[in-house]
Amino acid sequence: IRGYQWIHLFTTMSQSHHEDPHGTTRELIADYLRRCGYKADCSARNVELRSVVAQKMHSLKSGNSVEVVDKALDAGCNIAESAYGHTSHDHQYYIALYTAILICVDDTGDRQLEALEQFTSRFSRGEKQLSPALDALVDLLRQAYSLFTVFGSDAIIAGTLEVVTAMHVEFTTKHLEIKP
After folding, report:
1. How far is CA 77 from CA 36, 83, 102, in A?
2. In angstroms, what CA-CA distances link 57 with 15, 23, 156, 158?
């Protein structure tokens, strides 16, 4: 497709998606993949995995809407099923739940700044977290060594501490003016 054809395609799609700002992007990507001959390697949905992850996520009583939890649950399970379908049920459960919890925390972090700020210090002291989702995340981190190598578990834990700290920084500095 030539440059002017992309411009025409983009402007045509932009006009038809004024209600949905992401619709144009979705259509451009879908069109590109179609033209490349890409065929998705769809993984089968693991109904059992989704059931146990959903039960755990809904039991957290995190105050998140059902829609937020279900969106995070679906994303976590999709990743576990597609990228880690070759691993055991326990590994897939860990990955799906870990991912879903972090998505929920990221989606609602601006309403739980103190919980994010204190996550690392409470984790290091073995104290209860200020959020049910973060308590569940800590429980998962403690289980890492039973599923993964020492190096893998260390990386999961260190990365988690960093990402939760980064979320706190993101939410507390998003209104600051950037000065060169």
Report:
1. 27, 10, 13
2. 39, 29, 20, 23
Q: Splitting the chain (180 residues) into consecutive groups of 10 residues, what average pLDDT does each group show?
A: 47 54 79 79 84 92 77 92 91 96 91 95 97 95 97 98 96 87
Contacts of residue 159, Cβ cutoff 8 Å, sequence gap at least 6: none
Q: How far is 100 from 71, CA to CA, in rounded Å? A: 8
In this structure, what is the dihedral angle of CA atoms 85, 86, 87, 89, given to the nearest 10 degrees? 50
Structure-block tokens of residue 164: 């939760």
State the angle between helix axes of 23-36 and 3-16 in degrees (0 to 180), rounded to the nearest 10: 140
CB–CB of 108/165 below 8 Å? no
CA-to-CA separations, 29 to 7, 11, 26, 68, 79, in angstroms, rounded:
14, 14, 5, 25, 20
Rounded to two decimals, what is the model's pTM? 0.78
Tokens representing residue 58 in the block: 């809904």
Residue position matching structure tokens 């497709």: 1
What's the pLDDT at 49? 95
Tokens representing 12? 């045509």
